[in-house]
Design goal:
This protein is mainly β. The chain has 2 helices and 8 strands. It has a single domain (2-135), classed as Jelly Rolls, CATH 2.60.120.380. Helices cover 14% and strands 48% of the residues. The protein is elongated.
């Protein structure tokens, strides 16, 4: 399993019309768990969306965004990332006029073969070769 953690810091007075965008590079596989941490102090002023290309990965509703204050937002997921298309992007803005705020984005990715044991043909053969190769 690979586990990624990114801190996205957003300056004060960052409007929704000109958000901070930070790349979240991942590995091919299945995103199976997501955790977002809003530390104390942001008081609902810091907003976050996670994008994959032009698609809004989270939250699911296009007009939605995450906000929080001293809380974790987490869920189980099943979202496949294929090779050469593993870059997600945090899009965040900050309505605070006094302070910059940060949000932590964590994503856990497992190889598709681990989460989808119903592989057939060449994929099954590659899976077993990789698995056996790790034990030699």
């Amino acid at each position: 399993m690979t586990f990624f953690s990114y801190t996205v810091t957003v300056p004060k007075n960052t409007p929704k019309s000109a958000p901070v965008e930070q790349e979240l590079p991942l590995t091919p596989g299945i995103v199976h768990r997501v955790r977002i941490r809003f530390p104390p102090g942001s008081k609902g002023k810091l907003h976050l969306k996670i994008m994959h290309g032009a698609h809004q990965f989270a939250p699911t509703n296009r007009d939605g965004d995450f906000i929080g204050n001293d809380e974790w937002i987490e869920w189980k997921e099943w979202y496949e990332l294929v090779e050469h298309d593993t870059l997600m992007r945090a899009v965040a803005w900050n309505e605070s006029t006094a302070y910059a705020h940060s949000v932590i984005v964590q994503l856990a990715v497992l190889p598709a073969e681990i989460l989808n044991p119903m592989l057939t043909g060449a994929k099954r053969q590659r899976f077993w070769q990789r698995l056996i190769g790790q034990w030699r």
